[in-house]
Amino acid sequence: MLSIKDRSIRTKIILAMVVLLIFIGLISFWVSYMHEKKSLLTNMQDSAITLNRGLIISIRNQNSIAEKVNLQTLVEELSLTEGVFGVWVIDNNSRITSATFREQVGEVASCCFVSEALQEGYYVSGFDTKMGEEVYSAVYPLKKGDKIFGVLEVAFELREYLRAGSKHRSRLLDQMKRDSRIMAESLSYSIKNMRDVNELIHIQKLVDRLSAESGIISQITIVDDDSRIIASNDLNRVGMIADDKGVRAIINGAEIYSRLFPREKIYMVDIPLRIGDEFKGVVNIGYDATNYYTHLSEIFQFGLLISCMGVMMGILLSFQVANPIIKPVERLIEVTKRLAAGDLSQRATVSSRDEVGTLAGAFNQMALDLTRSKEEIDQYSKTLEEKVRQRTRELETSNQELRSIQNELMEANMVKSEFMSIASHELRTPLTTLLGYSELLLTRSLTESQKKEFLGFINEESIRLSKIVDDLLDISRIESQKDFGFTKKPVELAEVLVKNIKFYSRAETGHRIITQIEKDLPLVNADGDKIGQVITNFLDNAIKYSRGGDIVCRAFVKDNMVWISVQDQGIGISQEDFPRIFNKFYRIERDETAHIGGTGLGLSIAKYIVESHDGKIDLESELAKGTTIGFGLPIFQA
Q1: Which H, E and C letters describe 495-543, residue by residue?
Q2: Dihedral through CA 388, CA 391, CA 394, CA 399, nearest 10?
Q3: Rounded to an integer, what distance in angstroms lies between the CA atom of residue 245 and that of residue 257?
Q4: Could you tell me the CATH superfamily of domain 485-634?
Q5: Which of 347, 512, 567, 634 is deepest in the core (most CB within 10 A)?
Q6: What are the tens digits of pLDDT across the range 470-490?
């Protein structure tokens, strides 16, 4: 007789299916458990619905909720009378059942005359305070026969009374007394004519009795069609808005809404309350679900025990079935890994005559073929590998040289393009002016004043041309990372500032330059000429981009640094230009700057000079309101 390991894969699969059937049995048991759970829940729901409907029938027989709605409507209509502050209907427990202000329904009446009218059974009136306002209240008892089942309170506003003089107050007070008594008696008569008005509190009594007598009811709530609670076993909730999913679902047209609260172990059911075909509210009852969870827990524990036993048996049987399949395959996998690692001497052990044994034989033949092929390939690849490595090294060297040359050419081309664009535009203007005025001096007879004027123009354009050339040379040094040639020594920034301001003060710039310099400024370690170049650049920009107004230059100490700032009242800088304002060759392109020349290098050079001195540049600007730009250098430490 063949052992399990010698049987075919088909036989082994059949055995595996037997194990699978065991697990299917366990799943079936779990489905049965869920079905039992659903049955328990359905039974509890049926009982809950039956009790809900019984409560609804009791409410319908009294028609109390319809009377309550009618009474609330009557109270709200009377509240619209001129001079009336509010109307309240109060039961014999001093609890408000209807009121002008609906949020007060369910609360205990605070009027001092209510208890007196309930105890003595006669009309009481006088001054009172309602909701923070002084009013005149009249309380009239509601009786059926000799039994007092509530009171009616009417409150009048005292605004006209308080505005009247002392002579008229007595007359107004008599009038209020008469009006309040007439209205109270009239409303009392209307209420008495309403059917079974003494049963207005029947719903609450019914709720209290049902809650006290039933051992399975945890919560009872009656809600009207406005979502306001009109009765509850928790009296503190009466008069509040019922913010509940079930209540909203019933009001929106659902016939029943139920849900389970596992944490509180309560099963809640909501059913619509209808009198005839008219929807009047919602009946919400919560039932104690402790027995449900206890029974469910017992079923679950039993099912869990059976499941665990089945799983253990299935695992043991699976090992017995899987070992004859898994062990040979694992041994074959191990041999395959060694073969893949390069050990072609590995061979699989053939221990059975089934499909796994056939696979092991085929593997051994494949390993033998691979060994032969490898020997042939090794002989051929010895010379080929060396040729490939040599050629690869040559190609890599050539590619690196080509990439280096390409990058250098691209950079040179970009620099050339930028330089030619700036030079052709900025150098042409002063050169044209120089050529024009020099030609006039050479070819025409001019007066001395004309010659002096033309020579002044030539001098200005020569200075401008010199600045452009200096900027181009400076930016060229910066780009090539050459030494800028700083000669640093202790200097007073205030002196450098004053020295550069004097030049602009003598020139006719159309601006008044104001200086504000703190006393006893400390020294800084800097190249005075280069720092002067920065100040000159800031002053040039302030003058060029301002049509008028004062230019304020300040020197002060802040954060252990000496600061120089230049403030103008010019066109300002937009927020989108801020990130690029210090870029090389960048100029603000706007209609008001179209006539202003420049290379766009000044601020870039200034930033380089300041940062080379371990300093900081600060820029603040707002369109049409001016710009404040400054730089700070560290205080010199001797």
Answers
A1: HHHHHHHHHHHHCCCCCEEEEEECCCCCCEEECHHHHHHHHHHHHHHHH
A2: -80
A3: 9
A4: Histidine kinase-like ATPase, C-terminal domain (3.30.565.10)
A5: 567
A6: 766 666 666 666 556 788 999
